[in-house]
TrEMBL record:
Highest taxon in the source lineage: Eukaryota
Protein name per UniProt: Trifunctional enzyme subunit beta, mitochondrial
Classification lineage: Eukaryota, Metazoa, Chordata, Craniata, Vertebrata
Entry-linked PROSITE patterns: THIOLASE_1 (PS00098)
Subunit comment: Heterotetramer of 2 alpha/HADHA and 2 beta/HADHB subunits; forms the mitochondrial trifunctional enzyme. Also purified as higher order heterooligomers including a 4 alpha/HADHA and 4 beta/HADHB heterooligomer which physiological significance remains unclear. The mitochondrial trifunctional enzyme interacts with MTLN. Interacts with RSAD2/viperin.
Secreted found in the keyword field: no
GO terms of biological process kind: fatty acid beta-oxidation
Keyword Acyltransferase: yes
Length: 255
């Protein structure tokens, strides 16, 4: 968000609304759009909300912004997405959570000791997060494998497409075309100045990998699917009239 403000010089008070997409939410910052906006110096009078719709969340945030402009509710919207896969929230088991909440309400020492005595070793087993649907327990990797099977998309076709994607991304990066990346200092590590997820390989190397989801017959692998990473994005969305009135040259049109 700060990078967007620097790059565009858009005044903070011109932004009518901020909307962000995310997949795995952190309880402490469940409305991460609002927290990020305040952290970036936007007014507390600028409303913001967060949307979650699996891997299409940030796209949904953008289309929500376009819809608000089309409806005449806003003139200027900032939309984007954010994920922190390297620090996903890991919860206590339900038994442990229930015990701790009850313990918090216990008034006497006797009641507290009684509750503590009921804690068993299996209470400490953590609940690991999964990028999966609650209703079906299916991950998007499984969905992709089913889709590939339904439309007869071969493993080779997927590998070729992935190799093409990474190769073109590397070419664009080498030619200095990916200039929207904002350098970011990661605490304890070097400053990230470019997309580090661009990794061209070879069909031979990719062909050696085993299926990542549906084993042993699936076709989706670690090389031909997206990887889990950290990152954030922000885009400035306006009606064409508003953009031209403010002196901006549109980089893209959303219709």
């Amino acid at each position: 968000l700060r990078g967007l403000l620097t790059r565009t010089s858009v005044p903070r008070d011109v932004v009518d609304y901020i909307v962000y997409g995310t997949v795995i939410q952190e309880v402490k910052t469940s409305n991460v759009a609002r927290e990020a906006a305040l952290g970036a110096g936007f007014s507390d009078k600028t409303p913001a909300h967060t949307v979650t719709m699996a891997c299409i969340s940030s796209n949904q945030a953008m289309t929500t912004g376009v819809g608000m402009i089309a409806a005449g509710q806003c003139d200027v919207v900032v939309a984007g997405g954010v994920e922190l896969m390297s620090d996903v929230p890991i919860r206590h088991s339900r038994k442990m959570r229930k015990t701790l909440l009850t313990l918090n309400r216990a008034k006497s020492l006797g009641q507290k000791l009684s509750l503590i005595s009921k804690i068993r070793p299996d209470y400490f087993a953590p609940e690991l997060p999964a990028v999966a649907e609650f209703s079906t327990s299916e991950t998007m990797g499984h969905s992709a494998d089913r889709l590939a099977a339904a439309f007869n998309v071969s493993r080779l076709e997927q590998d070729e497409y992935a190799l093409r994607s990474h190769t073109l991304a590397k070419k664009a990066q080498d030619e200095g075309l990916l200039q929207d990346v904002v350098p970011f200092k990661v605490p304890g590590k070097e400053t990230v100045t470019k997309d580090n997820g661009i990794r061209p390989s070879s069909l031979e190397q990719m062909g050696k990998l085993k299926p990542a989801f549906v084993k042993p017959y699936g076709t989706v692998t670690a090389a031909n699917s997206s990887f889990l990473t950290d990152g954030a994005s922000a885009m400035l969305i306006m009606s064409e009239e508003k953009a031209l009135a403010m002196g901006y040259k549109p980089k893209a049109y959303l219709r």
